[in-house]
Amino acid sequence: MKANNFFEMTNEELTNKVAELKSELMDLRFKHSTNQLSNPMVLVTCKKDIARAKTVLRLRELGRIEEPEKSAKKTRSRQKKA
User: Which fold has domain 3-62?
Assistant: First the structure.
């Protein structure tokens, strides 16, 4: 997942994402220990995603960046043909 995606999430979404990634990491570790994991780089990417999410949460805690406002999905208005 790209770092920009984490900056667009709210704090609640980030904490949920961290919990989800931690449970996924635990599952991947079990699969890796029993040689069921075909691509071990998935472990590394999962760890990095956790670090990215925690970094964004910490930056918001320190006040370096602000939490995005919850708003409706952005839709582009189409121009009607005359």
Answer: Helix Hairpins (1.10.287)
